[in-house]
Design brief:
Elements (H helix, E strand, L loop, with lengths): L1 E10 L17 E9 L4 E6 L11 H15 L7 H11 L4 H19 L3 H4 L8 E2 L2 E3 L4 H13 L4 E5 L5 H13 L6 E5 L6 H10 L6 E3 L5 H8 L6 E3 L6 H9 L5 E5 H4 L2 H13 L4 E4 L5 H12 L6 E4 L3 H4 L11 E2 L2 E2 L22 E4 L1
Parallel strand pairs: 5-6, 6-7, 7-8, 8-9, 9-10, 10-11, 11-12
Antiparallel strand pairs: 1-2, 1-15, 2-3, 4-14, 13-14
This protein binds (2S,4R)-4-hydroxy-1,1-dimethylpyrrolidinium-2-carboxylate and magnesium ion.
(2S,4R)-4-hydroxy-1,1-dimethylpyrrolidinium-2-carboxylate binds next to loops.
Length: 368
């Protein structure tokens, strides 16, 4: 049974400039949880929001939510994910990010108990190395194109160009500049992180009608996405509006979503991601397995889930470490080579080797 939960705060500064329509990423404080059971097995989970503007949650709030969530699962069997999640949902409405950190730690711990990898517990890998996608930030057209060239030289075949938060003529110029340097086989998504009005989204789509690309979360709300859907020529990928399995099911069945950008921390962890994955795969709906920001723990969870996707319906995984260059496990933390992320090979669970005390003093400790 779970008898101790320790919480750590770890800064993960963006060393490479990282820009979105709503915000620039500065120094997000990642929340790491260490869940210990009565036999001394330890599991790790993590949640980290890129910026307070990105989605309705923030990093101090994650740690505040744990003051309610952690005590609610003390004494429970960490292998019983359904029971653990039900207890957290009874204790606190919402706050999926704190729930995700604890849920992921339970998967890691359960894997160590079972001597199985989280990938195998999720059903097994359909890819050994996981396709990744990379961001081209908000920039002048020539600078954005230069980044796109460099990323493709590094073997990247999936680009996410950020847009929004400035005049749409600048966005349109950057989209055209990047499109001109795309190699055959490179996929382009233009992501405004909720940045355009409906009129702007329609204008951009029309101005880029000859470009093969998708539009990721072009507007802020599901209602606005519906409004633009009939008037744009590009597929819609839903990111910020995919807040839970109910929203995902609705947007698949009403035809709004052509694909999803999914994050374990927004959905509530690997248990929730597994359910949404099964829904997406059963309905042949492409999805990515990424997260807002974070280190090796959330990356290992994202890559594990990403490896289990049917390759035809995988939009890839996104990892933050190329931007903050921090590894918790230098040897096993997921690496990207030639556009693919490796699965951590450090043993069962998430496959990372983490040491007690490596994250400094806990900011909170909860005990039975
Ligand atoms: C590229 N991401 C997965 C990471 C950022 O924090 C935001 C995000 C997205 O697709 O919006
Ligand atoms: Mg997005």
């Amino acid at each position: 049974m779970i008898n101790e939960i320790r919480v750590y705060a770890v800064p993960l500064s963006a060393e490479t400039k990282y820009t979105m329509s709503s915000s620039n990423v500065a120094t997000p404080m990642s929340t790491i949880v260490e869940v210990v059971d009565s036999d001394g097995f330890v599991g790790y989970g993590e949640a980290c929001l890129a910026s307070p503007q990105f989605q309705p949650a923030h990093n101090d709030g994650v740690r505040a939510s744990l003051a309610v969530l952690a005590p609610s699962i003390l004494g429970l069997d960490p292998m019983q994910f359904t029971v653990v999640n039900a207890a957290m949902n009874r204790a606190l409405t919402g706050h999926a990010e704190g729930k995700a950190a604890l849920d992921i730690a339970c998967w890691d711990l359960a894997g160590k108990r079972l001597e199985q990898s989280v990938v195998d517990m999720l059903g097994g890998a359909q890819m050994d190395d996981v396709l990744t996608y990379h961001v081209v930030g908000i920039d002048a057209p020539d600078a954005a194109a230069a980044t796109a060239v460099r990323l493709q030289e590094d073997g990247i075949t999936r680009l996410q160009l950020k847009a929004g938060g400035r005049g749409i003529h600048e966005d349109i110029a950057s989209i055209h500049a990047v499109a001109e340097v795309l190699r055959p086989g490179t996929d382009l998504a233009v992501d405004t992180n909720r940045g355009w009005s409906t009129a702007e989204a329609i204008q951009v789509s029309n101005a880029c009608r000859d470009i093969t690309m998708s539009m990721e979360q072009p507007c802020a709300t599901e209602a606005e996405l519906h409004q633009v859907k009939a008037q744009i020529v590009h597929p819609i990928i839903v990111d910020e509006s995919s807040t839970g399995i109910d929203a995902v099911a609705r947007m698949i069945s009403n035809g709004l979503a052509d694909g999803f950008g999914l994050k374990a921390t927004r959905l509530g962890g690997l248990t929730a991601m597994r359910a949404v994955r099964d829904l997406c795969m059963a309905t042949r709906t492409p999805m990515s397995s990424d997260d807002a920001w974070g280190g090796d723990i959330i990356a290992a969870a994202g890559v594990a889930l990403g490896a289990t996707l049917d390759p035809q319906f995988s939009r890839g995984a996104w990892l933050a470490h190329p931007y903050h260059q921090t590894h918790y496990d230098e040897a096993n933390g997921p690496r990207i080579e030639n556009g693919f992320a490796t699965l951590p090979a450090g043993g069962p669970g998430l496959g990372l080797v983490l040491e007690a005390g490596q994250f400094g003093d806990p900011v909170a400790v909860y005990r039975t």
